[in-house]
Design a protein that fits this description.
The structure is a single chain. The protein has 567 residues and is an alpha/beta fold. Helices cover 39% and strands 16% of the residues. It is flat, with a radius of gyration of 33 Å. It starts with 10 loop residues before the first helix and ends in an 18-residue tail after the last helix.
């Protein structure tokens, strides 16, 4: 070939120049080299060059280059030039078939014989319609999904691991499905000697999710807490429960008997265990704060009585008050394990990503730590949307799951911004000492250990309060809370029926104290009066003034998801 910029004179150079313009050169993940002309792919391997030779001669004629098309020697030289150019191309991502071929190539010594895995289904690949192959795979998967380990969460399929976590099978290039199918099915083609094992057909693997996912049991999450279903029945058996669309994994928890119609003494004992033991030593700001903490436990165990639940904000007047211990012991009662705390971002996109990841993992509890400011459009939407939808992280597929999460947050002197004020339930700790971490003389010096030892009894206490409410005809509380009306009526009714008053009685006062931006807004509005007087102005005018003239504006109170003039 000539150097770059040199005049193109020879037939080899002329033809290579035309070919480079018309052909797309590529290299597959396995190292095969191709030249694509529209929808036609020409292999550049030594033994498969007849097609590319004919194509190059046609290009010579189509380009009306001078003289007759080059002979075989020049054509081969041009193909060699194309081969070098294709080798410089970046390799394409491996296809599912290539991934399977790589796995088989790594097997020691030889490919496995079919008889080595007699439990696997044999599916004839060969010259069959890909839909028929996919249907055979789907029938086998659905038939053998017992006990259930595959579920649908919206349009996605998830697999339940032994540790109770969920993993999506709809990964890029179908790798999740490929591994699951290849472990259970042998694909064979007929040959002269004996059936030969081949990789899963790529076309069938692409079709498979569309057939399987609609036939999988729908899943809303994985829980480790015995709970009540919508009919008030205690659900304590491990496994998937069709009515609630949840998988329960108690990990060997022994739950004491919960009476169908608890006596007054049983109810009093249940309340006493929660108030006089678990919650006895926390420095509550008001009696209502302790009742709201119990409401958090009832919310998790009775989540099927109401479609939505608010955010439980555990607030403290000073560090070391015990808010972390309160939430930790509550989550241990519920799950048997300490909470997986996450930091609550104020950035809208980062907040959305964390919530989506938690939802897709099937988590029914989300705990936010160091959440001194409660705000964010994604967080607000999560609390008031019965169905949560978002793109699966790292792809364009939309996930849509029924929202059964309950959320807790921890912070000191918490501030609540904007619409979040209508979505929170406060529990405030206010110790009467400057160094609350130095307090002593607790009823249970190691409360975490005590809670672990009595987890079954504490859960039974919460379920007894619910069963008492059910036996009394589900009396509704008279308190009201906007989007969470059913939650307030059910939880408040259960608390009142158990003799626990003051539910939500101090929320309005707490929100007033948590909204301390009045002085800043007063100064800001006074400045606008001085500047504009009685004249009209827009929010955009104010935003421009704030950026150019430094007019007093409570910047720190601005919704991070909204432009300044809209805020």
């Amino acid at each position: 070939m000539s150097d770059a910029g040199a005049p193109v004179t020879s037939k080899r150079e002329l033809l290579f120049s035309v070919a480079k313009k018309r052909l797309s050169l590529r290299q597959t993940a396995s190292g095969e080299l191709f030249a694509d002309l529209g929808n036609v792919s020409y292999p550049l391997a030594l033994r498969a060059r007849d097609g590319i030779r004919a194509a190059l001669r046609s290009m010579w004629r189509d380009a009306k280059l001078p003289g007759d098309p080059p002979g075989a020697q020049v054509i081969n030289e041009v193909i060699a030039d194309l081969l070098l150019a294709a080798q410089a191309a970046h390799p394409e991502p491996a296809t599912p078939v290539e991934q399977a071929d790589d796995l088989m190539a790594q097997l020691p010594g030889r490919a496995p014989a079919l008889r080595e895995h007699p439990e696997r289904l044999e599916v004839l690949a060969g010259n069959r319609n890909p839909f028929d192959i996919a249907r055979d795979i789907a029938d086998f998967i659905i038939k053998n999904n017992n006990p259930h380990v595959l579920f649908s969460m919206g349009p996605a399929a998830v697999r339940l691991r032994d540790d109770g976590t969920l993993v999506s099978l709809d990964q890029d290039a179908g790798a999740g499905w490929l591994a699951y199918v290849a472990e259970r099915i042998n694909f064979v083609i007929s040959s002269k000697d004996a059936p030969r094992l081949v990789a899963p057909p790529a076309a069938a693997m692409k079709i498979l999710p569309a057939i399987v996912v609609p036939e999988l049991p729908p899943l809303d999450g994985v829980v480790t807490t015995p709970y009540l279903d919508a009919d008030g029945n205690v659900v304590a058996a491990d496994g998937y429960h069709t009515g609630t669309r949840l998988v329960l994994l108690t990990h060997g928890l022994t739950l004491p008997h919960v009476s169908h119609e608890p006596t007054e003494q049983e109810v009093a004992s249940a309340v006493g265990l929660l108030t006089d033991d678990w919650l006895a030593d926390f420095p509550w700001a008001t009696p209502a704060d302790m009742v709201n903490a119990i409401a958090g436990l009832l919310t998790v165990t009775g989540r099927h009585f109401f479609p939505l639940a608010p955010l439980f904000v555990v607030d403290a007047s000073t560090p070391g008050s015990g808010k972390g211990l309160l939430v930790m012991t509550l989550i241990i009662i519920v799950t048997g394990e300490p909470p997986a705390f996450m930091e609550l971002p104020t950035d809208g996109d980062e907040q959305r990503k964390k919530i989506t990841a938690a939802m897709l993992a099937g988590r029914t509890l989300i705990t936010w730590d160091e959440s001194h400011i409660i705000s964010g459009r994604s967080l607000a939407m999560t609390l008031t949307a019965e169905t949560y939808s978002d793109r699966i992280l790292g792809g364009n597929k939309l996930m849509s799951v029924r929202n059964r999460t309950t959320q807790f947050s921890l912070g000191n002197n918490v501030q609540v911004w904007g619409d979040m004020k209508r979505r929170v339930v406060p529990t405030r700790l206010a110790p009467d000492t400057e160094h609350p971490e130095n307090r002593t003389k607790f009823k249970h010096p190691n409360l975490e250990q005590w809670v672990r030892q009595h987890r079954g009894q504490l859960l039974a206490a919460a379920l007894t309060i619910w069963r008492n409410w059910e036996a009394k005809g589900r009396p509704r509380a008279t308190v009201s809370m906007g989007s969470f009306e059913r939650w307030a009526q059910c939880v408040g009714g259960a608390l009142t029926a158990a003799g626990l008053p003051s539910f939500l009685s101090h929320t309005e006062q707490w929100l007033d104290n948590a909204d301390d931006d009045f002085p800043e807004w007063a100064e800001h509005l006074a400045a606008l009066r001085r500047i504009y007087g009685p004249a009209n102005f827009t929010a955009l005018d104010v935003a421009v003034l704030a950026s150019k003239q430094g007019i007093d504006l409570p910047w720190f109170k601005r919704d991070p998801d909204a432009p300044l003039h809209k805020a």
